[in-house]
């Protein structure tokens, strides 16, 4: 089965489209819910599957990705699956060497230090052909899901990918990347364009392979103030949405809803709501009612329980979910956490979160 034989797959019929309906702004009978990093180390079965091979080898195994994607759905009645992968497969496909160091996170052996380092990067046009393993994982998972819930594909946004490529790993300040923005604005734009050119065919390829929605992670938005964000992040975020939608249409593929999640990017909420995405993801630092007032009725909101709230008792989780749902309102809303699940979280509490969303959102609609 050719992953790039655009739209050639026939997949099992979707039985639960609540997540997609909410993403498109249609009415739903209850509030759909999924969790960022729902396929993660908090699940003992995830740790068991992952124990035998290193992180990026797992990402390159369609069977392993499929299994990890499906694990949380066996435990919880989640309303969407998100493919197990990593945002750093894109810099890898551009020719950069990245390893995942246990306990430390990603590490680039030769980060971008000078302007001429950009010449080492592969042509962004070849990136999608390097990432066939992600497309295969999506197609396999879509088959195995048997229409239970929709499958979300994803990628990192250009600025967030740039930070990893320049910092060489995680950073608390992003000082090296921001030094690029201030000292080498032209080279920075060149790099961000290369990343955008790589992301567009990669995301379109995910849809062709079977992804039914796409999320763009601008995880490091908070390191930029409003000025830098509107200059170096927002234009590329907009460009990705616009070009992906145009390419899907050109390829004769049905449109899919797109989600933008810019963590700590609350200063740009209005701009993000008009950036061409159907859904705007919020982190836990944003008050739902205020966010709703600021974005208006034109987009769906997704979020935004503090992941650490899952350390509370199941009863308290229920109360916090109730308040969150009351504040977001019943429609144009997808429940989620404000960031990914942490490895030491109790799966029972994740289950309590999911059940509370379903239970309370049905009650809200009755009243």
From TrEMBL:
Keyword Cytoplasm: yes
Domain Uroporphyrinogen decarboxylase (URO-D) per the UniProt entry, residue ranges: 32-41, 152-168
Heme found in the keyword field: no
One GO term (biological process): heme A biosynthetic process
Compartments, as annotated in UniProt: Cytoplasm, Cytosol
SUPFAM superfamilies: UROD/MetE-like
Range of residues in the leader sequence: none
Pathway: Porphyrin-containing compound metabolism; protoporphyrin-IX biosynthesis; coproporphyrinogen-III from 5-aminolevulinate: step 4/4
UniProt keyword terms in alphabetical order: Cytoplasm, Decarboxylase, Heme biosynthesis, Lyase, Porphyrin biosynthesis
InterPro entries: UROD/MetE-like_sf (IPR038071), Uroporphyrinogen_deCO2ase_HemE (IPR006361), Uroporphyrinogen_deCOase (IPR000257)
Catalytic activity: uroporphyrinogen I + 4 H(+) = coproporphyrinogen I + 4 CO2; uroporphyrinogen III + 4 H(+) = coproporphyrinogen III + 4 CO2
The organism's place on the tree of life at top rank: Eukaryota
EC numbers for this chain: 4.1.1.37
Molecular-function GO terms, alphabetical: uroporphyrinogen decarboxylase activity
Main localisation: cytoplasm
GO cellular component, one term: nucleoplasm
Assembly mode: Homodimer.
Family the UniProt entry places it in: Belongs to the uroporphyrinogen decarboxylase family.
Role summary: Catalyzes the sequential decarboxylation of the four acetate side chains of uroporphyrinogen to form coproporphyrinogen and participates in the fifth step in the heme biosynthetic pathway. Isomer I or isomer III of uroporphyrinogen may serve as substrate, but only coproporphyrinogen III can ultimately be converted to heme. In vitro also decarboxylates pentacarboxylate porphyrinogen I.
Annotated protein name in UniProt: Uroporphyrinogen decarboxylase
Lineage of producing organism: Eukaryota, Metazoa, Chordata, Craniata, Vertebrata
């Amino acid at each position: 089965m050719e992953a790039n034989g655009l739209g050639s797959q026939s997949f099992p019929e979707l039985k639960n489209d609540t997540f997609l309906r909410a993403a498109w702004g249609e009415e739903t009978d209850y509030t759909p819910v999924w969790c960022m990093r729902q396929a993660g180390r908090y699940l003992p079965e995830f740790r068991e599957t992952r124990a035998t091979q290193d992180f990026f080898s797992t990402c390159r195994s369609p069977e392993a990705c499929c299994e990890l994607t499906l694990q949380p759905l066996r435990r919880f009645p989640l309303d969407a699956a998100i493919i197990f992968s990593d945002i750093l497969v894109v810099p890898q496909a551009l020719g950069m060497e990245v390893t995942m160091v246990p306990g430390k996170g990603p590490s680039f052996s030769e980060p971008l230090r000078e302007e001429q380092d950009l010449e080492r990067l592969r042509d962004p046009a070849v990136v999608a052909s390097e990432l066939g393993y992600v497309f295969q994982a999506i197609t396999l998972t879509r088959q195995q899901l048997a229409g239970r819930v929709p499958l979300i594909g994803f990628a990192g946004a250009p600025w967030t990918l740039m930070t990893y490529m320049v910092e060489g790993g995680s950073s608390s300040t992003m000082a090296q990347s921001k030094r690029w923005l201030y000292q080498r604005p032209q080279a920075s734009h060149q790099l961000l364009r290369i990343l955008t050119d790589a992301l567009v065919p990669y995301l379109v390829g995910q849809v062709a392979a079977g992804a039914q929605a796409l999320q763009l992670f601008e995880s490091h938005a908070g390191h930029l103030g409003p000025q830098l964000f509107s200059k170096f992040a927002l234009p590329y975020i907009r460009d990705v949405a616009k070009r992906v939608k145009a390419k899907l249409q050109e390829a004769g593929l049905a449109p899919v809803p797109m989600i933008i999640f810019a963590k700590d990017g609350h200063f740009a909420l209005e701009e993000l709501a008009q950036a061409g995405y159907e859904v705007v993801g919020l982190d836990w630092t944003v008050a739902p009612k205020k966010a709703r007032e600021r974005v208006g009725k034109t987009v769906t909101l997704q979020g935004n329980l503090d992941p650490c709230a899952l350390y509370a008792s199941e009863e308290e989780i229920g109360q916090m979910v109730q308040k969150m749902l009351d504040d977001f309102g019943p429609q144009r809303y997808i429940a989620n956490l404000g960031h990914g699940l942490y490895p030491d979280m109790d799966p029972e509490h994740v289950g309590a979160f999911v059940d509370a969303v379903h239970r309370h959102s049905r009650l809200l609609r009755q009243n």
